[in-house]
Write a structure and sequence with these properties.
Blueprint (H helix, E strand, L loop, with lengths): L6 E4 L8 E2 L1 H5 L7 E4 L2 E7 L12 E6 L16 E11 L5 E9 L7 E8 L4 E8 L9 E10 L4 E7 L4 E6 L2 E6 L9 E9 L9 E13 L1
Antiparallel strand pairs: 1-2, 1-5, 3-4, 4-15, 5-14, 6-11, 6-15, 7-8, 7-14, 8-9, 9-10, 11-12, 12-13
């Protein structure tokens, strides 16, 4: 069973897009964009969905909170920080790209890391790519292919870990990458996100991304 008690949810409907608070998630919220059934949670985001302010693409995505619903932000030197997920990518848009996990920076348009599944028509498999800003002021992310040849409809695991020393590690589909991030990140308030942030905004209402999470867990040790 996925514990939803430390998340809220953004869904791509309304203007601005609706936020489903933690208490509502815990009382069994579901709609076409978010289904918590049995032990898994499924996200759907059409390319036609509404977008959060300053975002280019729509999302159905969880954002880290405290159990009382307040937004949780943390600084990495205070703990060993983990986002762990086991998931299956069921559908991708025509770009093939969907963000499945993030460390975002509070009050910033520049995430520290976006973990993206990138489907290739030619091979009928996807790469798992980390887009990382080594410093908060960087406009462009470094692009690291962590794992390759991950099929649609096949379950895999990822772990994003940022430890007290600033070592960022990404484990995905049995492959691993790590590197120390710039010290300027140490004072920045950060938070985890997970779900379906579709990297496409053109097409019809049936085009989009669908992902099923079988496990999803945050730890700050």
């Amino acid at each position: 069973m996925i514990d939803l008690s430390t998340w809220n949810l953004s869904i791509p409907v309304g203007s601005p897009p609706a936020t489903i608070e933690t208490s509502k998630l815990m009382s069994g919220f579901k709609d076409q964009y978010f289904q918590a059934e049995g032990s898994s949670v499924q996200f759907w985001t059409p390319v036609t969905g509404t977008r959060t302010e300053n975002a280019v693409y729509p999302r159905s995505e969880l954002r880290e909170t405290y159990a009382d619903g307040r937004l949780r932000n943390w600084t990495y030197p205070d703990a060993d920080n983990f986002l762990r997920a086991t998931l299956t990518v069921n559908q991708v848009p025509s770009t093939g790209k969907v963000v499945i996990g993030q460390i975002h920076a509070y009050d910033s348009q520049k995430p520290l890391i976006k973990l993206e599944y990138q489907f290739k028509e030619k091979t009928q498999t996807g790469n798992i790519v980390a887009k990382v800003r080594m410093r908060p002021d960087e406009d462009e992310s470094r692009v690291i292919t962590v794992a390759s040849n991950v099929p649609l409809q096949k379950s895999f695991t990822y772990v994003i870990n940022l430890n007290k020393a600033g070592l960022l590690s990404v484990y995905a589909a049995d492959k691993e990458w790590n590197e120390r991030i710039g010290a300027a990140w140490a004072s920045k308030p950060l938070y985890f996100k997970a779900g379906v942030y579709v990297q496409d905004n053109s097409g019809n209402t049936k085009e989009g991304a669908k992902v099923t999470f079988e496990k999803l867990d945050i730890d700050h040790d």
